[in-house]
Amino acid sequence: xxxxxxxxxxxxxxxxxxxxxxxxxxxxxxxxxxxxxxxxxxxxxxxxxxxxxxxxxxxxxxxxxxxxxxxxxxxxxxxxxxxxxxxxxxxxxxxxxxxxxxxxxxxxxxxxxxxxxxxxxxxxxxxxxxxxxxxxxxxxxxxxxxxxxxxxxxxxxxxxxxxxxxxxxxxxxxxxxxxxxxxxxxxxxxxxxxxxxxxxxxxxxxxxxxxxxxxxxxxxxxxxxxxxxxxxxxxxxxxxxxxxxx
Length: 246
Known about the structure:
It is a single chain. It contains 8 helices and 10 strands. The protein is α/β, with parallel strands linked by helices. It has a single domain, classed as Rossmann fold, CATH 3.40.50. A 7-stranded parallel beta sheet has the order 1-10-9-6-2-3-5, covered by helices on one side. It has a 3-stranded antiparallel beta sheet with strand order 4-8-7. α2 links the parallel β2 (about 35-40) and β3 (about 60-65). The longest helix is centred in the first third of the chain and has 23 residues, at about 10-30. The chain is globular. The protein starts with a strand and ends with a helix.
């Protein structure tokens, strides 16, 4: 696991996008196609804004959606499908994008996604880390062993508070309690992981993820075991790290 710290979240986003684009282009050069995972949330704003400007043959890229609320309409401001359509999918001519639909039969949707993603070995996963150190919507204690690519999950109070605090919902009560999430094992199958984590509110989670032990109670700490992971921080999110204090 490699750590890079930048002064601002804009610099963080540009660097993560630049490195991700290089890895996507390497995959296209090798196989004439690339498969990626795309995350959502406030942590991905700057990275996605930069990624869509990179010189990539997007018509050779297939992308998967990391997680989505159960029971939330695509028209809701907090919908991750809406987020990705507006900020990414509508901006680049992808070969394919596989959305998660949390409005219908959840088990059938997981089965559909699971039978699909096994056909697309992931080259680059763009992810973030939650305030509770979740990875995707795998809240603590996360299941590190389950092999299915997508599963329904319960969202803990800290996770729901983060979504409310970021302004996606008008009240905590509006935040759904369940979601469909890519599993930890599926994320780890990615050849490369680009993890963008700006903002001071993530600083404690970042410290625990990077300097603590690998534990289901700190889900994203599992990234320590993935040799091709780079975590991109800004000065605020990296402020509690030992190297920041030196």
